[in-house]
Specification:
With 229 residues, the chain is mainly alpha-helical. The chain has two domains: 131 residues, no CATH class; 86 residues, no CATH class. Helices cover 59% and strands 7% of the residues. The protein has a three-stranded antiparallel β-sheet. It is elongated, with a radius of gyration of 25 Å. It starts with 7 loop residues before the first helix and ends with a helix.
Amino acid sequence: MKQENFTKKELERLGCNDKEIKLVMDYQKKLPIPSDDVKMNARVLHNNLGVGRDFSTWITFRIKKYNFIEYIDYEIHYESSDPKIGDVDFTKFSKNQLSAMRVKKEYYITLTMAKELCIIENNDIGRIARRYFILMEKVVKENKDWRAIRDPEKEEYKKMSAEVDAWYNRIHHRKANRFEFAAEADMLNLIVTGKTSHELKCKLHIVTNNLLRDYLKKEHNEELLFLEQ
């Protein structure tokens, strides 16, 4: 599943500083977010790097000079803007014929190749893009680690709530209400952070209806997971 763009709050939760947050917020809509299965369109990278040469000349020269390998570093796709064109072997057509049919030859490249092309370009934008990719690899890994704790913590909260509800049924012969569930959650928050849910939301500037634990750092959710269990 493709990673959605990160919000400022998520980046803060992952420990990014102001400079890193600005870099991600400025570039994540222009450049891909690293993933095991996502390749980026080299034409997009070419445009964002401000390369002077036309795209096809630039990409074929780079592939040849730096020995990038098809199906390992990049894949070629033919894309048409004409919906009437069906399944056609576009490799048999010349560049002019493809242009007449409104078909573009697109190169989809790996993240590794994208980083190398940024380094090779050796301009200010290329250096910024390279820093972005390096930072995003770190952010994506840390977010994956965070989710590995947060998702089970959500499930354990549901189980804990079911136990609270069962206790009220046994003792008071009624279901627990939302205030009683909130009191249980607050007890855990106080143990882990020393603050109630309301105090934490105020401190972190979280909208009232948003889930507090989506904004807590990994170590806090890890402790909450343990206590819920």
